[in-house]
Amino acid sequence: MPITTAAARPDTAPVLSPAALDAACCAALKHEADAWPKPGLVTPVDPGSHRDMNYASFVDSIAALRGYFAEIAEAGARGARYAELQVIAIAAEARMMAATRGANTHRGAIFNLGLLAAAAAWRAAHPSPAPVRCGALVARLWGPAIAASRRAAPTSHGQAVWQQFAAGGARAQAAGGFPAVYRLGLPALQALLAEGIEEDTALIGTLMTLMAHLDDTNLLWRGGDAGLADVQAAARAFLHAGGVRRPDWREALIDMHGWMVARRLSPGGSADLVAATWLVHRLDGA
Ligand SMILES: CC(C)(COP(=O)(O)OP(=O)(O)OC[C@H]1O[C@@H](n2cnc3c(N)ncnc32)[C@H](O[C@H]2O[C@H](COP(=O)(O)OP(=O)(O)OP(=O)(O)O)[C@@H](O)[C@H]2O)[C@@H]1O)[C@@H](O)C(=O)NCCC(=O)NCCS
Ligand SMILES: Nc1ncnc2[nH]cnc12
Questions:
Q1: Dist. CA 54 → ligand 2 center (Å)
Q2: Name one GO biological process term (predicted).
Q3: How far apart are CA 53 and CA 105, in angstroms?
Q4: In angstroms, how far is the first alpha carbon of the chain from the final one?
Q5: Interface pTM (ipTM) of the complex?
Q6: Tens of pLDDT along 42-73?
Q7: Which of 55, 58, 156, 219 to mutate to test the pocket of ligand 1 (most atoms within 8 A of CB)?
Q8: Could you give all domains of the chain from N- to C-terminal order, each with its CATH number?
Q9: 210-241 residue pLDDT tens
Q10: Residue of minimum CA distance from atom 49 in ligand 1
């Protein structure tokens, strides 16, 4: 499914059925998994900073998630409360865990892409002359409940990082309408595509833009403040030197991959938001 290059405009947004949303979400996850090189992350070439999962885990995980995005989209279309979406998402997480023998390949994506698919389906069921972007709809429809769910949440890495570093992570992104996707990821992706850069390379450029700024709770969990700061500084230096426009960009990222793997650093939250960016580029019009 190719993506196009013009600016995102909700008034030209395509209306996708739950089945088409499901296909789009799975395609977003596949594009992210396939892209190489991605510092610290799993690619078809190696498992990066992960010992419990590899590229095959991602392929199996995506297969196990087929149908989930249609299910949560149908719930979104009928105006389901956040608690109802949670039931659907928790069941999908269990299928992911079974397919990967206990590895957390897509927890963030189940959350982020699931909410965006639910919002897209709600928008399709409630036509308006001035439709809003999916991220803003997530914030409007479910933001308060997402923010409140932190207080009731059981222990998670994200929760521990929030307590230690006050980094909002996945919940803050979703409750705020995905500011990193709309202010960082999407402009980066669309600028690169508009220059004629091929899609896989543009997704890597998008990843580096997100890594340069995002409070990625995976980096904080594994590397603390120093791990996050070092990765952000390296991503910024890469972008400053031309990013994926420089001829030796792959070598630069392979080098970064080396030291990130040595320190077990993985920007899993940024990877999830690459997939979310690909998706909203499709959902919010091109
Ligand atoms: C609602 C939840 C998503 C709550 O999230 P919480 O804030 O409590 O954090 P986590 O449960 O730890 O997971 C959040 C995942 O979100 C990704 N992420 C991280 N930073 C950001 C960010 N700034 N913006 C957006 N997204 C972000 C990230 O996902 C990736 O990390 C996975 C690996 O994570 P983890 O296992 O923690 O780390 P490892 O390093 O692998 O662990 P070790 O090997 O060291 O042991 C990776 O695969 C990506 O997916 C975070 O992991 C949620 O937890 C929840 O409640 N889920 C149930 C379903 C639900 O209710 N959904 C709501 C309805 S849709
Ligand atoms: N390619 C990837 N590697 C590791 N964690 C991830 N989370 C989402 N995509 C990922």
A1: 9
A2: prosthetic group biosynthetic process
A3: 7
A4: 13
A5: 0.93
A6: 999 999 999 999 999 999 999 999 999 999 99
A7: 156
A8: 18-151+164-283 (1.10.4200)
A9: 999 999 999 999 999 999 999 999 999 999 99
A10: 268
